[in-house]
Amino acid sequence: MRFICRHQWLMVAGIVFLLTLTLGAQEWYDHYDNARDLIAESKWEAAIRELQLAVSKKTNPQTKAETTTLRYITYVPYYWLGVAYYNLGEYQKARENFRKSYDYWGVIKNTRFAQSIKTYLALVEKQVSLSDSLQQLTRTLEDSLRRSQGKIARLQRQIAELSRKSTSSSPTENPLKKRFEQGLREFVAGNYRAALASFRWVQAQAPHYPDIRNWIRRAQLELERLGKPPEPSPPSPDTVVVQVPVPVSGAPPSIGFKLEESIFRSDSILISGTVKDDIG
């Protein structure tokens, strides 16, 4: 008799334990209901966790999904996952879930969510496209920045090398050196017109100054690239053209040029030279 009572007590305890486990375990619709409540409170991350649990227990959407409590609900977890990811700014994941809703369009098209999915998907596609464009622009700018940094580094090395070479220059070369280095600094700073003016000044003073023609050309190319064509190089201020009437006979007038006496067939001649040239 004691054995039978003990056996019955164990059976009752087991049934109670199983009922406790059954009542304590959440079904897919419990997670789905929890997610809907969290979405209403804009708790997107927590809602995503609940929706993922619901999907792990019931994968396919359904318009009249029956629960164990004899309720019928519209089960569209991928739609709500898309909404949650969209509000978190994770547009790639939002697009993935909205598109997954389209895989069940035969179910979704008869619900009030059909038009919303189309609207959200259009917005997501636009955001993803914009995001891709911004990423591409960012990569382009980063590449341009790296190239510019490399260019500046090479220019700085060239400036250092030129400065080193000119260390032993005579004092008379210092103005040329200073103006040339000023041009280099303007070039590195992007002031190509000022740089060109300095390089031209150096060339006017010393036509064979090392590498001056190359730097003038580089400054001109940069101005052309920016749509700012360089001004034409001005004529040398030392060059003059003098037209002096000379009689057919007799000594020519004294104008700072030494001319030999001769007979000319014309009543005037064209003499050219420089102010510094007093030989003729």
Short description:
62% of the residues lie in helices and 8% in strands. It is mainly alpha-helical and 280 residues long.
List the helices and strands and how they pair.
Layout: H1 2-24, H2 28-40, H3 44-57, E1 62-66, E2 72-75, H4 77-87, H5 91-103, H6 105-108, H7 114-165, H8 174-188, H9 192-205, H10 212-225, E3 239-245, E4 268-274
Antiparallel strand pairs: 1-2, 3-4
Helix pairs in contact: 2-3, 3-4, 4-5, 5-7, 7-8, 8-9, 9-10
Number of strands: 4
- N-end to C-end Cα span: 148 Å
Largest sheet, in brief, is: 2 strands, antiparallel
How many domains make up the 3D coordinates? 3
> Structural class of the helix and strand makeup?
mainly alpha
**CATH hierarchy: architecture of the largest domain:** Alpha Horseshoe
Stated plainly, the CATH topology of the largest domain is called Serine Threonine Protein Phosphatase 5, Tetratricopeptide repeat
CATH class of the largest domain: Mainly Alpha
Number of helices: 10
What is the N-to-C order of secondary-structure elements (H for helix, E for strand)? HHHEEHHHHHHHEE
Portion of residues in helices? 55-70%
Question: What shape does the CA trace take?
Answer: rod-shaped
The spatial strand order of the largest sheet comes to 1-2
What does this structure look like?
- The protein is mainly alpha-helical and 280 residues long.
- It has 3 domains: 7-130, Alpha Horseshoe (Serine Threonine Protein Phosphatase 5, Tetratricopeptide repeat), CATH 1.25.40; 170-234, no CATH class; 239-274, no CATH class.
- It has 10 helices and 4 strands, in the order H-H-H-E-E-H-H-H-H-H-H-H-E-E.
- The strands form 2 sheets. Strands 1-2 form a two-stranded antiparallel ribbon.
- Strand 1 and strand 2 (72-75) form a beta hairpin.
- Helix 4 runs antiparallel to helix 5, helix 5 runs antiparallel to helix 7 and helix 7 (114-165) runs antiparallel to helix 8 (174-188).
